Amino acid sequence: TDSAGKPAGVVMDNRAGRQAILAKVVIDATPNARLAKAAGASLSEFRAGPQNVSWTVIATNGPGAKARKLPVGFIGVLQAKRDFAVDAASTAWFEYSLKLELPDASWAARARIEQAARDASYNPSQIYSPEMPFALFPQTVVSGVPGLLVLTEQPRPLATMRDGEKLGGTAAEQAKKVKLGADLRVAVAAPKSEVRGKIMEPLAPLRPTELEGAAPSAPRATTERRPPGTISQAERDLPVLGEYDVVVVGGGTAGAPAGIGAARRGARTLVIEYAGGLGGVGTIGGIAAYYCGNRVGFTETVPPNPTEVRMEWYRSELRKAGAEIWFGCSGVGAVVDGNRIKGVVVVTPYGRGVVFSPTVVDATGNADIAIAAGAKYVFIEEDYALQNSHVPLRTPGRSYVNGDIPATDDADPMHVRLTMRAKLERHTHGFDLGTVIASRERRRIVGDFTLDWLDSMNQRTFPDTVTLAMSDYDSHGYQIHPYFTLTMPERRTKFWANVPYRCILPQGLEGVLVVGLAMSAHRDVMPITRMQPDLHNLGYAAGVAAAMAVKANVTPRAVDVKALQKHLVEVGNLKASVLTDRDSYPILADRVRAAVANVVKEYKDAEVLLAMPEMSRPLLQAAYKKASGLDKTVYAHVLAAMGDNTGVPTLLEALRTDKLPIVRFSKGNGGRWGIIRAIGLTRDRRAVPLLLELSKSKEVKTDFQLRRSLVLTLGRIGDPVAIPVLVEMLGTTDGASPAIADLLTASALYRCGDTDGKARRWLEACARQSDGTMARLAQQTLSEKK
Fold it and tell me: Which end of the chain, N or C, is more open, meaning fewer C-beta atoms within 10 Å of its C-beta?
């Protein structure tokens, strides 16, 4: 509001933080006149009692007397491989009309009435359902607030749409005559009173990006949109929306199973999900068929597609176990006492509030709650090797739609918007768009233990394993682990990974478990651990652990892991051997010595040597001194992958003469690219003259991997001698429409000294463009000391 109390904008919450949006005119189109109430409008008395609720679905079999068949046609049910078989001729729209009791005006009551509507209307033959039921809020605005227009919902949505269009025209005319007021501040609803914990939320502003209205495919505007500053808000209470034993934030691939696991163990459980259905990537994300994964135990009970059947199974299992479900809600922060999370800050359609719980399962897939509470995390390393994402179309009857688009930063609303808009522009004929981005890589916590790619390669066992994951190396991107400077795994080989309980415990935080793609793991092992069946079982294990913690009145870190494992063995998630497993590291000395001999055979056993660097390094150095020919080059290469520069002269000679070792399973990787990247790990300046010579070759312009390897290595070495070549490689690009190769080149130039400021200007421009992943790396580079 301005100094006169007139509305001058709104406050919005999202997973990036909380922001003020200034506006000359505000239209309150919330279902309960939430903004009008906050601005001081008078509302009629709330009318408790039976409410009319409608629910419309597409189904192949009529639900009989429960619903009426709507007089509209249905076109466009697709049938394809792995689709739910649908007879388009018998498919129709059906509308349920229900009378359901609404006892009060709270959000919890509204959430319960939605679940009751779903309970009463589910039809096993349905192939599409809405994200929410339709119900008019039993309260109206009696006296309004100047400068705030209120859209009153009509019994029929089309009537509301017509009213909304008219009101939009009115607002546009008013905006021509209005100026924003002065002394803006956020209205305070209540004074500060009882303190039950510190509210911690991300309060980052949205990044200034391209001007509104520019198509994603068009050249991005380079004009800087400066942030308008900040708006003050006095401290105030947040309403307590509920108290539970376990709160699961996110009802996706791991979150829904977590809620089921906790509720089945008797914990009073709440599952919060911003979408209109459960299951995440495996349902509304459009990927309802498994590619890989260890399909045992809990995940075996999850039904296969179709999508609607799967979503309903999650929901009904939660309901049968006594859990509550809040759809259309997001967890945006944490209530923290010292280093312990005691609850979450939730945004509902009725406003913000707090839900208290002694144990929280962060199943946002992005560690949103843990990071808000101060957890350390990693996401985009300097190598920029993110796995690709996918935006699904939602088509009735179709349960599997997969694809590849460049990685999207799910935690960046501007990047999400860009990705969704681009998808819509390419698929204007689609029935609907999925409400989640099926990303394969997101922010990951730094946990009590970080699972490594070598742990999988060496089949490492742990005393606290809670999931056994399995997949081939389905990377959908590049790699950064030192192992991949040497060789690559065979594409169709199945790899296994024991996932320790410590991977879901954020360092330094109590009261929270983090599951899904946000668990603590090196990004190059994620292709093995991220498959849906394994995330199902990890989520289930976390839910059970959360319930055990509440029952024992301890934090999740103090849970009896052996008791947890025993239960997981009983339900079939794990083999009984986990009960007696110990850490299989350190690897025995005889095995390491054998690996030193074997590694010259196309890098066989390199994973053993890299896993035991203190033991293997002196053995490799001795073998290097005795070896000759390509064997000597291999030993030099493995040492370099460990950061040891003993054999750098040999590697440089191999690059000059192009006499390179034979590499397993991969074309080229482990040849020039791999050797150059390994040299970068040594940071040996003796390599700079040859690297600069290679950087001037014509091949660099066409071979992305070669350029990537060269600029990364030059940046890691940081020798100012490389500046002129890097300036020339960066060319005339300005950072407004960057390519990955340019971003890596600018980063390398910045690290080498950036004498004329070109890299800084380029990175600052890149930080303002709409691709959140590239912008994030640009920002990270700028924050480094040169």
Answer: C
Distance CA 630, CA 501 (A): 43
Residue 447 pairs in a beta bridge with 506
Cβ neighbors of 246 (< 8 A, separation 6 or more) are 259, 262, 263, 267, 268, 269, 270, 357, 359, 360, 361, 543, 546, 547, 550
- Using CA atoms, how far residue 516 sits from 120, 253, 641, 734, in Å, is 31, 7, 30, 37
* Gap between the Cα atoms of 51 and 32, Å rounded: 14
Residue of 571 and 154 predicted with greater confidence: 571
How far is the C-alpha of 228 from the C-alpha of 21, rounded, in Å? 9
Rounded to whole angstroms, the Cα distance separating 152 from 149 reads 10
Q: Counting beta carbons within 10 angstroms of the beta carbon of residue 31, is it exposed (0 to 12), middle (13 to 18) or buried (19 or more)?
A: middle
Residue 543 vs residues 47, 130, 267, 611: alpha-carbon distances, Å = 38, 28, 9, 32
In terms of C-beta density within 10 A (0-12 exposed, 13-18 middle, 19 or more buried), how is residue 61 classed?
middle
Q: Of 607, 377, 389, whose CA–CA distance to 477 is shortest?
A: 389
Is the Cα torsion angle 635, 637, 642, 647 positive or negative in sign? positive
Beta strand ranges found along 103-194 (DSSP E): 126-128, 134-135, 141-143, 148-150, 185-186
Name the more confident of 183 and 337: 337
| Cross-strand bridge partners of residue 17 | 14
Tokens matching residue 177: 């005559």
Coil vs helix vs strand at 333: strand
Question: Measuring CA to CA, which residue among 53, 196, 38 is closest to residue 133?
Answer: 53
Beta strand 126-128 with 49-59: parallel, antiparallel or unpaired?
antiparallel
**pTM value?**
0.93
pLDDT in tens, 330-361: 999 999 999 999 999 999 988 889 999 999 99
3-state SS class at 169: helix
Listed in order, strand segments (DSSP E) in 138-223 are 141-143, 148-150, 185-186, 198-200
Backbone angle region of 602, left / alpha / beta, with phi > 0 → left and psi within -120 to 50 → alpha = left
How many other CB atoms sit within 10 Å of the CB of residue 237?
A: 16
Burial of 177 (0-12, 13-18, 19+ CB in 10 A): exposed
The two tokens of residue 19 are 């922001």
> CA-to-CA distance for 397 and 128, rounded, in angstroms?
8
What's the burial of 729, exposed, middle or buried (CB within 10 Å: 0-12/13-18/19+)?
A: buried
Q: Is the pLDDT confidence value at 254 over 60?
A: yes
H helix or E strand, kind and range, residue 157: helix 157-177
* Nearby residues of 620 by Cβ (< 8 Å), 6 or more positions away: 596, 609, 635, 638, 639, 642, 644
What is the residue type of 131?
E
**pLDDT at residue 81 in the model:** 38
Asked whether 242 and 108 are in contact (CB, 8 A), the reply is yes
Q: What is the DSSP string of 77-103?
A: ----TTPPP--GGG-EEEEEEEEEEE-
Mean pLDDT of 133-161: 86
User: How far is it, in rounded angstroms, from Cα 92 to Cα 127?
Assistant: 10
Say whether pLDDT at 222 is over 50. no
Distance, in Å, from the CA atom of 676 to the CA atom of 729, rounded to the nearest integer, reads 17
CB neighbourhood size of 85 (10 A): 8
**What size, in residues, is the chain?**
786
Helices (H), 25-147: 34-38, 107-121
Question: How does pLDDT run across 661-706, given as a tens digit for each residue?
Answer: 866 544 444 478 899 999 999 999 999 999 999 998 888 888 888 8
User: Distance between CA 361 and CA 370 in Å, rounded?
Assistant: 9
